[in-house]
Structures are given as structure tokens and as C-alpha cells.
Design a protein that fits this description.
alpha/beta, 2-enoyl-CoA Hydratase, Chain A, domain 1, two-stranded parallel ribbon, about 50% helix
Length: about 260
């Protein structure tokens, strides 16, 4: 069952050392700022929880995994301060995932756009279905995926990032994402995805938590500057969203 709450929903279940975070929003599991703040705080909280070894990140329903940031909030931005704050939402979540002491497994059941691709990229290991196509369409409205670009590039490389961002109107299918390294495995359906996510998370939860933490640090080496970098990128996007080009492009979408 999917949420009807305008600010979305966020639930965490902890069982057998595995924490499952499930987010939802009636607009294709998109993220208003309040929900992004809650998600970042949840990662910080679970990072300190001694009873948790592994985190699964998933979204509600059987269709879209995540449609990115709230479109309604995006079109309402009218000053740089609000613009920077808006784009800092995904920056804060990615940094919370990066610094979290627990491994994060992404369970990606459907299409993913914009910031949602950044979420998938910030997972330590992502499993997906064949329906989990991805798209970064930001250039079409005069901005760019600058905040999530470091996370995406870390997984798919500079050529993959170029292909995703410059071919901004095309979907890349789940097998493209697997070939590039965004997804570790791709399954035919959600039943198989859930089965394999359970098996993997249970295996990881049985391992030495200290070893998992050291592995996490190794996977994220050379990203220590992201606290500053991603906020700088948020400011870049905040400036661009105020441009005449973007205001005109967004007004067409509103109509």
C-alpha cells in the first residue's frame, strides 16, 4: 500500500541486525525537502545503532523507485538561499549514506530519475529489477545533476556520467546500469529481487561488524571532501534554477 501523505512517509524496521528503511510519496516516490531531511537523519541514527549491521534502502510500491526531488518545491524557488537549501537535500542524504558506519544495500524495483539515481549510486551495493531504468534529464530544464554527479561518477565512470547527462532525454535500461557498475545484479521481477536482497543482507549481517565497517571505509576512500563539494554543487544548481532559461522551461512543465 502506498502513502497518500503530501510530505511522504519514512519507516524503519529492524530485525536480526538488518534495518530496512522504506520511503514513499504519492508523486512516484519523489522527495520533498522534509522527507530528505528525515532520511538523512535516519542514516545518522542507524549509524550509531549497535544492534544494526546492515541497512536496506527501498521505496514503496511496485513501480517507480524514486522520481527525484519534489517538482512543486523546485518551481517555487525564487532566491539563491532557498535554491541552495533545496539542492542541499540530496547532498545531505548522500553524505549521510557515505559516512554511515553500516553497509547500505539498495533495493531498486523500478524507474529512477535525477536524485533517485544519486541515491542508488550512494548505496554500497544495489540490486535491481529489469524495470529499473534510469534517467538524468536535468540539462533539459537548464540545470544539471551537479550534486549527485560525484556519487554517480564513482559508480559509472566519467564516460557513463557523460552518456547519462548529455543524452538527457533517453532512458538507460537496468542492464546498461549493471554493465556500468551502478547495479550489482538485475532480476526479472520483484519477487526474485526481494528473495536475493534477503539472502545477501542476512549473509552480510552474519559477518564481523568491525570488518564490514573497515570495508565500508575502504569503499569510500578519497571522498572526504564531499561535505564541502556537494554543498558547493548545491549552490551552483541554486544559481542555475534562477536563470531565465530554467524559469521558462519550468513554466512550460507547470502548464
Amino acid at each position: 500500500m502506498t502513502t497518500t501523505r503530501p510530505n511522504g512517509s519514512l519507516y524503519t524496521k529492524i530485525e536480526n541486525k538488518i534495518a530496512t528503511i522504506e520511503f514513499g510519496h504519492p508523486a512516484s516516490n519523489s522527495f520533498p525537502s522534509e522527507l530528505l531531511n528525515r532520511l538523512a537523519n535516519e542514516f545518522h541514527k542507524l549509524s550509531e545503532n549497535k544492534t544494526v549491521s546492515v541497512i536496506i534502502l527501498k521505496s514503496e510500491g511496485e513501480r517507480a523507485f524514486c522520481a527525484g526531488a519534489s517538482f512543486d518545491e523546485l518551481v517555487a524557488i525564487d532566491n539563491l538561499k532557498d535554491g541552495k537549501a533545496f539542492f542541499s537535500g540530496f547532498a545531505n542524504v548522500i553524505n549521510a549514506m557515505r559516512k554511515c558506519t553500516k553497509l547500505v544495500i539498495g533495493r531498486i524495483q523500478g524507474k529512477t530519475v535525477g536524485g533517485g539515481v544519486g541515491l542508488a549510486a550512494a548505496c554500497d551495493y544495489a540490486l535491481a529489477t529489469e524495470a529499473a531504468a534510469i534517467k538524468l534529464s536535468e540539462l533539459t530544464i537548464g540545470i544539471g545533476p551537479f550534486v549527485i554527479a560525484p556519487a554517480v561518477k564513482r559508480k559509472v565512470g566519467i564516460s557513463g556520467l557523460a552518456e547519462l547527462t548529455l543524452d538527457a532525454t533517453s532512458w538507460k535500461n537496468a542492464y546498461w546500469a549493471k554493465e556500468k557498475g551502478l547495479y550489482a545484479r538485475v532480476f526479472e521481477n520483484i519477487t526474485e529481487l526481494d528473495k536475493e536482497t534477503k539472502i545477501l543482507s542476512e549473509k552480510l549481517a552474519s559477518y564481523n561488524p568491525d570488518a564490514l565497517f573497515e570495508m565500508k571505509k575502504t569503499l569510500w576512500s578519497d571522498t572526504e571532501n564531499w561535505d564541502e563539494l556537494l554543498i558547493e554543487r548545491a549552490e551552483t544548481s541554486g544559481k542555475l534554477v534562477l536563470s531565465d532559461f530554467t524559469k521558462t522551461a519550468l513554466s512550460k512543465f507547470k502548464k
